[in-house]
Amino acid sequence: MKDFTYLAPSTVAEALGLLAEHQGKAKVLAGGTDLMLQLQDGLFTPDFVIDVRRIPELNTLEFDAQAGLTLGAATALRRIETSQVVLDKYPHLATGAREIGSIQIRNLGSVGGNICTATPSADIIPSLVSLEAVARIASVRGERAVPLESFFTGVRKTVLGPDELLVDLKIPAPAPRTSGVYIKLYTRPAMDLAMVGVAATITLGPGDSVIRRATVCLGAVAPTPIRVREAEQLLEGQAVTDALLAQAGQAAARAARPISDVRASAEYRREQCDLMTRRAIRQAVERAKNAA
After folding, report:
1. pTM score, two decimals?
2. CATH class held by domain 56-171
């Protein structure tokens, strides 16, 4: 590992100043479960590591009935997993957090670190995209808001500039009778990467029979998360039937761009996108029936 200078700002403004001063020569540490391994492997060789874990604004987990949920970028995954408001209002977000590594890793790892690492198999990202989360990005030049589905540009690539910091995520408050599900395909039952991940968020109309709104996101089957808008359009305004679910699943399979590797073939992953999307939507509909 190359030697670096460790910096620990106490405010967002201080962190942004350091990023501007050391532009292109610094990496942000928000937990370190990914970054420290990358430094050891020589994937990154920064002159400065800026630790933002102790900045209060970056550790926010707050819910407002009007504004929704705010997650600071340094908020620990374990905190998200166990938050009662997340479990009640955004259960698939809690599931996505719970699927990452071990409890020890989730106590240290952060939602912002998981997002900014930008690996296709990240478990928390499909739920966040299906919830239409918006990333607040800041630099000394100002702030900008980016829908999370547009945040990723490739494997380990994002829209963040070298002087920019992910500050937080804004997740809209769920409409009445809204809930969601995240399911993943893996080889072993614990601490395994997703071969396929599917998140669905469903809002029901009166009477439990018609889907008012749907968002579906695939993970691990392309360089970036895929929001399946064709499936969403098929579902909205329709009663839930096996035929409708089959159409949505087939739309997900068409949207997927999987690869073949030692863990699974592209054909198998595409087939599972179909089947898992049907299952995720069905389960999300059942949850939405019982949502406030």
Report:
1. 0.96
2. alpha beta
